[in-house]
Amino acid sequence: MTILRNVRLFPRTADTAAVDVEIEDGRFSSFTSHTPGTTSAGAIEGAGRALLPSLGDVHAHLDSNRSGQTFRPHTADGTLHGLIMNDRENWRAGERSVRDQADFVIATIIASGGTRIRSHTQIDADCGLERFSGVRDALAAHAEVLDSQIVAFPQAGIVREKGVRDLLDAALNEGADLVGGLDPLQYDRDPVAHLDVVFGLAEKHGKGVDIHLHERGSAGVFTIEEIAHRTKALGMQGQVTISHAFALSSNPEPEVERIVDILAEAGISLTTVAPHNGVLPQRSLREKRVALALGEDGQRDYWSPYGDGDLLRRTWQLAFTNGHRRDEDIEACLDIASRGGAQVMAGARPEGTALVDDARFGLGIGAPADFMLVTADTVTSAIMDCPADRDVYKGGRLVATGGRLVGGKH
Ligand SMILES: [Zn+2]
Fold it and tell me: What is the CA 111 to chain-centroid distance, rounded?
């Protein structure tokens, strides 16, 4: 058993009372009031720090990343196709192998407070499974300190580029957890063919789906309806995620509410990377029990100069882009970054359980003891200040401190 003394759970005020925490078999087993002045042999001293649930990067691109490498000016033309081709022309010029770069970013994400990652990996006629394999091996090497999933992602389309279906099929045979997709209507220009391949492979392999959907307005509505139809027809409720879902930020409010109802009925979850131009209706999604997770996309790569692997800073960005000021709204962003991500990665939830259930993940008895300790008055102040001193625990074990993995190279 591990005993953690004198910590403040998810503190909402600076005078939130401290507790002592017991952890057994990697899970929270008790929370009791802390009595100042007492000692306990072998216990970890929390020193009044805030205990927050660990975070997750549930939309990562570990293979599309130059974090820690020499900064290079942005060279893409701004169109989606131009961005895709800019990456294709330059990714081999990276200063580290895909595997080494993925190792570096995984360490950064864990040290920032993350204990779960869902990474897309590009699969196309240019790179085949090379990028997938590098990310898969890096994630597998961190299995003891990280929950992870990998999406076989057809970055350059399925219809536009030949041979991609078979490459996706091979990646699923070699360990990919989900099938990806990309703008079936506006990029691949054949939504039926694109979605038939995605859902056909998901059905064949018994895997989930996570589709990039940048389509806005009525185009995005059309594709979401097509995805929901296939999800229900295959009984895949809880197994399908739509990433970005810009249709929810680019339609009139009644239409947005109708789409949220469609997502709820089909059990489709969402991820956002907190962009300025794709704010999702958090309150409505929460009320209608649509799971929402936070991710980071790549970091300072051939797509954009943004991103640093710090999940607490990305949580700040989520609050900022939503224009939140009230503590409860900002705390809800941390909930999206933590329990929301855990729910999305867990897939279908048991009948009758809450959207985010503290006994399954979070700060409840029986939940995995995945958390971080930070010096902060409250949850909101932790998000505003992004304190550098974070101790990160996975299953009750310290896995990162001082910005570094325990025992890690980085
Ligand atoms: Zn992405």
Answer: 15
Angstrom CA distances, 277 to 57, 246, 390, stand at 20, 8, 31
Q: From ligand 1's centre to the CA of 192, what distance in Å? A: 22
- Tens of pLDDT along 215-268? 999 999 999 999 999 999 999 999 999 999 999 999 999 999 999 999 999 999
List the chain residues with pLDDT less than 70.
352-356, 408-410
CA distance 57 to 10: 20
Task: Classify strands 371-374 and 50-53 as parallel, antiparallel or unpaired.
Answer: antiparallel
pLDDT at 409: 60
* 333 within 8 A of 315, measured Cβ to Cβ: yes
Q: What is the CA(184)–ligand 1 centre distance, in A?
A: 15
Task: Give Cα 30 distance to the centre of its chain.
Answer: 28
pTM over 0.70: yes
What are the DSSP calls for 70-87, one per residue?
A: PP------SSHHHHHHHH
Q: Going by C-beta distance under 8 Å and a sequence separation of 6 or more, which residues neighbour residue 315?
A: 55, 294, 333, 334, 336, 337, 383
From ligand 1's centre to the CA of 389, what distance in Å? 29
Q: What is the pLDDT of residues 75-128, one digit of tens each?
A: 999 899 999 999 999 999 999 999 999 999 999 999 999 999 999 999 999 999
Helices (H), 217-269: 217-233, 253-266
CA of 376 to the centre of ligand 1 (A): 31
Question: Ligand 1 centroid vs 120 CA: distance in angstroms?
Answer: 7
- 48: Cα within 13 Å, side-chain hemisphere: 11
- Is 68 within 8 Å of 104 (Cβ atoms)? yes
Separation of 271 CA from ligand 1 center, angstroms?
A: 10
Domains annotated on the chain, with CATH: 2-53+359-400 (2.30.40.10), 55-346 (3.20.20.140)
Q: What angle do CA 342, 164, 269 make, to 5 degrees?
A: 20
Cα(264) to ligand 1 centroid in Å equals 22
CA distances from 171 to 125, 242, 358, 395 (A): 13, 20, 34, 30
Cα 204 from Cα 221, distance rounded (Å): 27
In the reported structure, the alpha carbon of residue 155 is separated from the centroid of ligand 1 by a whole-number distance in angstroms of 9
